[in-house]
Design brief:
Elements lengths: L16 E6 L7 H14 L3 E5 L2 H7 L4 E3 L27 H13 L4 E6 L1 H23 L5 H6 L4 E6 L15 H22 L2 E6 L6 H10 L3 E3 L9 H14 L5 E6 L12 H12 L3 E5 L11 H20 L7 E6 L2 E6 H16 L3 H8 L1 H14 L13 E7 L6 H14 L3 E5 L2 H6 L3 E3 L18 E2 L7 H10 L4 E6 L1 H12 L11 E5 L15 H12 L1
Parallel strand pairs: 1-2, 1-4, 4-5, 5-10, 6-8, 6-9, 7-8, 12-13, 12-15, 12-16, 16-17
Antiparallel strand pairs: 2-3, 10-11, 13-14
């Protein structure tokens, strides 16, 4: 008798069969999704089948459709690509091909299909579902199946998961494979920066993204690139002059390198291509800078998946099986998406149509609509990049007479320096005077505080640890000296970046307000700890990097 606790008491897959396939371009994390579907399916007592080589395997049948066990997916979590293969299939685009695919599924009793792929793969799955009853009737008329089979397997459930390194599917904050591809890009940028700095070079880096600029945009944000070209947000007329002026200004500020990131599908406002070679030639001709082009290509697809992609794919795979078990003949095909930090189900075709609407908007020159249709995550990333990459002329900056102090508290965590950079640049853009505190509250008490400017935080995004220095010391025993420093420097707000010590420090500052009026100012804490144990936040700064280090060690 089975005495194991059941986490999904009301759901049973007994008597049901699930087929899982990967289709279209491969993406890191697909294997984690396959593994999750198989093990969740078996957990609820369903039969689970691999469909090798995507839709081609479904059409060909035979050994391409194989029942699998729990052990079949052992040790695939960390493998990139897809162990069950992926292939483009012309036959499945024809009704005859789909008829053969339906026959191969019915023979094995498979009426639940989990498809991992892009929007084209998912659109094909939805068409297959819509035609299913008609395909079964046609098979019965041809004598390939009997009427009992037509009734027994009357409807097909479809659930999709998006595997795409481009993050080009609307309705989800992140697709499987995107985070891993970003890791590949950032690794290359970090490597390039050392040689570029040595020789005072400009590097033009071309990344994937024929129709979507997510990889280019977010990698530019993550490495502090000087300029980025993406298809959804082409540069304005005269961008050549604007870019060259910015590159020259950066060199004048003693910056020894320039990084320009180009999505392979980048265009100008007239829908004309902007290539990496064109950008390189422009920089060489106009500025005479030593400039090189690096095209990443399929390196972005390869390698092991990041910790985030493994977790994302695993969670999505479990949710996909739950969606299949809860499906009815009236349930529309759905896609499992990420919203915030939760796996959610959305109508598949609504998301596909929205994705296609982005391309239509770009083709018609409605670029603001294209950015909006990409979703809040894309739009926020674009606005953040624009805010942090280009300093307004001093004459255009507002004057707030507001002084903000930024400091790190607690153990160092990856991302602290990027957070300081963002805080400083946003504060300056808002007209505030920004101050950096060295060595946390202990340094604050000793007067280690200085004004910090826009250029002072250049190149901080990719550096680990804490450039400002950080200590675990709480402010409790230094309250009087800290109040004196706040009074001397006329500090009107405090921004603390750190772990639980940061929370405790700000609580002590708050509780001392009755004794020190200098502490009666806005105080903000940004969670930064690799332990990810901060109340009120799903993810703390540094947690993702720490997970990736652990995963790399375990390989």
């Amino acid at each position: 008798m089975d005495h194991q606790p059941k986490f999904f008491e009301n759901l049973s897959g007994s008597g049901k069969a699930i087929g899982v396939l990967t289709s279209g371009g491969d993406a890191q994390g697909m294997n984690a999704a396959v593994r999750a579907v198989v093990r969740m399916g078996i957990y609820v007592k369903a039969k689970v089948y691999f469909i090798y080589e995507g839709y081609q395997g479904m059409v060909d049948g035979g050994d391409n459709i194989v029942e699998v066990s729990w052990e079949s997916v052992s040790s695939i979590l960390q493998i990139g690509g897809t162990v069950i293969g992926s292939a483009r299939c012309k036959a499945f685009r024809t009704r005859a091909g789909r008829l053969q695919a339906a026959y191969n599924l019915v023979r094995r009793g498979i009426t639940n299909l989990c498809v991992i792929g892009g929007d084209g793969s998912l659109t094909g799955a939805n068409l297959f579902r819509e035609e299913w009853s008609g395909l079964l009737e046609e098979l019965a008329q041809k004598g390939k199946i009997d009427e009992e089979a037509v009734k027994k397997y009357a409807y097909l459930n479809i659930v999709g998961m998006v595997g795409s390194i481009d993050n080009d599917f609307c309705g989800t904050d992140m697709t499987i494979g995107t985070d891993s591809a970003l890791h590949r890009i950032i690794e290359v940028v970090d490597a390039i920066m050392t040689t570029a700095q040595s020789h005072q070079r400009t590097f033009v880096l071309e990344v994937m993204g024929r129709h979507c600029g997510y990889l280019a945009l977010v990698s530019a944000l993550a490495c502090g690139a000087d300029w980025v070209f993406i298809p959804e947000y082409p540069p304005e007329e005269g961008w050549e002059d604007t870019m060259c002026v910015k590159l020259s200004e950066n060199r004048a500020r003693k910056k020894r390198l320039n990084i320009i990131i180009v999505a392979e599908g980048a265009i100008d406002c007239h829908n004309k291509p902007i290539t990496s070679e064109k950008v390189k030639d422009l920089v060489v001709q106009r500025l005479g800078f030593d400039t090189r082009v690096t095209i990443l290509g399929h390196v972005q697809r390869g390698g092991t998946p990041s910790a985030f992609d493994r977790i994302l794919a695993s969670r999505m795979g479990v949710e996909a099986v739950l969606a299949l078990l809860e499906g009815t003949p009236d349930t529309p095909a759905c896609v499992v998406s990420l919203s915030g930090n939760q796996s959610v189900r959305l109508p598949l075709m609504e998301c596909v149509q929205m994705t296609q609407a982005v391309q239509k908007a770009m083709d018609e020159g409605r670029f603001d609509d294209a950015v909006r249709l990409r979703g809040r995550s894309f739009e926020n990333n674009l606005n953040t990049y624009k805010l942090l990459s280009q300093k307004k002329p001093d004459a255009e900056l507002p004057k707030s007479n507001f002084n903000v102090a930024v400091l790190n508290v607690g153990a160092p965590a990856a991302g602290m320096n990027a957070a300081v950079r963002s805080a400083v640049r946003v504060g300056i853009t808002e007209g505030h005077k920004m101050f950096a505190v060295i060595d946390g509250f202990e340094g604050f008490a000793k007067g280690k505080i200085k004004e910090i400017n826009w250029g002072d935080v250049g190149g901080w995004t990719g550096q680990g640890g804490s450039i400002l220095g950080t200590k675990r010391t709480l402010p409790g025993k230094f309250l009087e000296k800290i109040a004196e420093q706040m009074r001397t420097n006329n500090i009107n707000a405090l921004m603390v970046i750190g772990g639980f010590e940061g929370y405790e420090s700000c609580l002590q500052i708050y509780e001392a307000r009755s004794r020190f009026e200098e502490f009666c100012v806005p105080v903000c804490v940004v969670p930064a700890t690799l332990s990810n144990n901060m109340p009120g936040s799903d993810l703390s700064m540094g947690g993702d990097t720490a997970l990736n280090v652990i995963v790399e060690i375990l390989l």
